[in-house]
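One example copied in:
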Amino acid sequence: MECEELAVEKNYQSFLYPDRESEVREKEGRRVRIERDVVEELGLSSLLPMKDSSLSSFFTSDSGVIAYRQAMFRDLLRLPELSLTLRDVLPLLFDITELRRLEADYDPTGESYLYSITEVELYVSCVARLYEGIAPLSDRLESAAFRSFAEVITTLASSDYYKKLNDDLSALSSRIREVRSITVGVNLDATMRPVEAGVLSVNAEPFKSGRMLDKILRLSFRNDAMTTIAPLTPFDKKQNENRRDALLSAFHGALDDVFRSSVRGWRAIVGEYVLESTDFLLRILPEIEFITRGAALCHRLAERGYPTVFPTVRPTEEKAFAVRGLYNPDVALRIDERVVDNDLMLDDDARIYILTGPNRGGKSVITCAMGQAQAMFQLGLPVAAEEAVISPVSAIFTHFPTGAEDTLDKGRLGEECARLREIFDSADADALILLDESLSSTGAYEASFIAAEILAAFAALGVRALFSTHLHELSEHVEEINRRSREAGGVAVDTLVAGIEEGRRSFRIERKKPDGRSYARDIAEKYGLSFENLRHS
């Protein structure tokens, strides 16, 4: 074996991390806390569906890692051929993974030559497709991730060892593919039960379904060895799973026996090399799936006429979040109407916002959009906006209403308070907290008091937060909240309003104090409960 090619495979390769140290530091040290339930609540699971891995494992708070990924995604979006190539390779890599699972289930000794041949064949197909799709683009690649990957694939596909492996595999595979049927001899005991079985021959043509009567009428037994005397039956018809697995194991064993001498030497030569190569590709399989899904999301948004942008990365301690033209990509892809975008800026005058407005005025949508933008930024993806300047956060926490709980009054307040306390205890000054209609299970007076206490504590801690609420009275507590936060060296709180223009929801978010009366009037008129509506109905 040529050690040079094998050494290339052992080099570190990743689309998501510039070096092994940064990956280890992220995964074993300061891992970003964005749990699966937060990913679900933000709608990211539907935007970026993953087969065998979780988005939670891909978040980073390292500014250098984010910049590395942004450069990689720029290549991916600028050169559609890259996305197409990786998309084509994904099913091949999934097949290798499934093949290894089957081999572990049905051949725990790892001695099946047929599994070995199939895995090598899949590996060769992967390398060939990657080389075919990426090598012609080498001069146009700008990211370190794709330049490094292209170099590895080119080295592999151009090596003499790979070419010989491909030639040997083609010759061996063609021999195996010539096998269309197996003739099996079975010995029976006195009760006609099978006691022994063996392979009589491996045939280059399939058996044909027939009947004994047809053979008698044609009088051609001698020259009709491939026609059965009874109709052929589908392999898995009326067989339980155990019986089917036993037969499969027997047939594979028979083929292994027949081809053992041909394959044994060949497998010994390629085994270590192929394992190294497939492990290299399988290790980055989750990354390939993730970046392919990410590129597909950006293309879908572009096809609908929505912009995406790579945010300017600012240090964590700046607590920056300044986004122009922010929209919710999940909503944008679900509805036919054009989604209203908004500008949202956290600055020294406000790192925490209280967002009020009419029901169905867009409060929940923009709250979710903020979380989506922060999360996509920390995946290295472009965000759903026109312009963006963002700092990484250490965690994202959500407190969103779910299902039937929205209507429960008894017991839910205690659960909400316990969850809010849990969030506070888990958060640090670099966290982002998103609250949507929290404390809606109690009266306005109690809810406003508790919410003011919570916001004062969050502000004193120094987090970034957006609190979407129906509690218009909460704005009256802002001055007191800010006084308490200043004394603790915390951040400022301000108010946002989901507006109404000419009596209709505009879904525009403005930085101003709320007018609760106008929203109450809007609700009364919507349901025909204004004095005028009731008097003239």
In short: Residues 1-10, 403-410 have pLDDT under 50 and may be disordered.
